[in-house]
Amino acid sequence: MERVRASEVAADLEPTRRPADPPPDTRREQLSPEAMLALQQSAGNQAAVARLRADRAQISRNGNHHNKWDQKRSDRTGRPHKAKWLREQDAIKAREKKERNAKVRAVRRFMERQVAPWATQARIGQLINTNFEEMKADDSLKGDAKTLQPSQHRSADSTDPQIAPGDTQFLAPNKSGDTAIHRGIVGIEMVEGVPHVRVYSALWAEARPDKTGKITHKDVHQDPETGAIAIHTGRDQGEDKDASKAEAASKHPIMWLSAEPLRQLKWFYKYPIEKFARGAKPVVRSFLVPNELWLEISGAAVSEDEATEKGNEDKPFNVDTAYGSNQFGVRGPLLDKLRSLAAKNSLVSYVGDMSHSKPEFGGNIQHVDALHQQLGAPTNTPPKLKPLHSQQGSAGNPIWATAPIWVDPDMGKFARTASHGTFADALSIHYATWVGKDALLPDAYSKVPKPRRQDMLREFLTKNGHELPEDYALP
């Protein structure tokens, strides 16, 4: 082997200026550790040979050959190794890609799990009110309520109907004076082959016996031994028949029931924000009554305006009509019948905290999320939007706030029916822009140019704590 002079090796190893970009391949960069060791041996550089051997031993022990070699080589030449530089660049790109994908996933979850469901809830609220207004104006609904029997129109191939099993019947809405009795389809469950309606009642809190053993507030209990359903209207509704209390004795006990679970779920969230009654521990009770009895209650109902007229004192009456169907105050003989015919062991209680209902009263106690799931209702809060009627802020800098779609915490009341359509439109435009489907655009926004709608979406996301990457291409 031709002996290489030490001066030539030293010149070859002399540091050069580090370029900004990765260095080009050179003969020196292509040397393997073995070649470098042989080169030092041939040059007679014993100190370098000993140092290289020590490095190789350390590298072998650490199990990190390439990184250690790159580091040592970079130290001696003053130039970073190209492979190491490329790995570092790849790591940076991978981290940036991961962060970018995380932002997009967070936006997608927000749009699918929060924006779309709450847009749907706002639209439902709008349509319920619109539907009722149309009922009041429809003269074809005058007269007695018509009976609907889906089985008469059912296909012979239908063996397991989900809405109206068997010969289930429903009552259609009809006009009553200047208004209408707001009825609709109800949920049916079969008990020993007999169709039953599941009815609901929202409570401020579970009514437990006082020191005298009396239940003085509205509630529905189930006996843990017999399964019997006990309906309590509460002293404020005239249940106390103590003759010494003339005011209570003159009242007719009333039980507020609904076959519309969504409305009772909204009451569940309204109780805690009421300004005049703090400390609510809301509960939604639910139990079964025969559909035949429900038809009797619904068919006998008068409007709330007619409830106090002479001759109507014992009749059920239709309430909360702009917000939902099938909601009645039940009193008189039909309340007695309700108490006697409520299906045993059918009570289900929905609570936000499992301690808010005791097993000796609540029957089958479930978290309120279970009711949300049954109804396909969101469990999160509505997105932030520009407010309509409070906390407007300065003209150029409006304060964004959680959209009051079910309830309005600032007002301590239910959300106004007039605002439902506006909130539905405001959320729908963002969702339509996100998925790129102009067919979903509300009429009020159909002429807004796409670039403007995309800017509006990005602002909306920012106000709700999300951000799309600048290079993300919206459809």
From TrEMBL:
Regions of compositional bias (Basic and acidic residues) in chain numbering: 14-31, 67-78
List all Polar residues biased stretches. 148-161
Region (Disordered) residue ranges read: 1-33, 58-83, 138-176
Name of the protein this chain belongs to:
Uncharacterized protein
- Origin species: Solirubrobacter deserti
Question: What lineage does UniProt assign to this protein's organism?
Answer: Bacteria, Bacillati, Actinomycetota, Thermoleophilia, Solirubrobacterales
